[in-house]
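Lecture 7 notes: from sequence to structure.

We start with a single chain of 127 residues. Read the sequence below before looking at the structure.
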Amino acid sequence: MAFLKTESPAPLRVTPGTFVPLSYPIFRALMAVSFASNIGTWVQNVGSSWLMTSLAPSPLMVSLIQTAGNLPYFLLGLLAGTLADITDRRRLLIVAQVWMLVSAGSLGVLTLFHLTTPWILLGMSFS
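Now the structure, written as tokens:
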């Protein structure tokens, strides 16, 4: 009469809440830095599009800014995923963020001194 045997139910698994990761200081720091980096990237995208309208008001050139900003994700996504799997992710993240900082900073300096051309802006938006 095995079918009459009652087994105790499996213990309930408690799932952590949505904000539990925020209790870790390193996660809070990474989240804050990621938030700041994304805001900077969005501001740069809007500023680049706006600058292109004054450098070359052609709709094609303005749309190429958006293409140049998003094309690296499409072209380099698989390579970046592979690098993230085989290298130290922390170091890769730092290198990527420093590269973005240098690229945005140099574009800012070139624009400040009125040395930015449409093609330089496209190249810097691609990186």
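Residues 31 and 93 are 13 Å apart (CA to CA). Keep this in mind for problem set 3.
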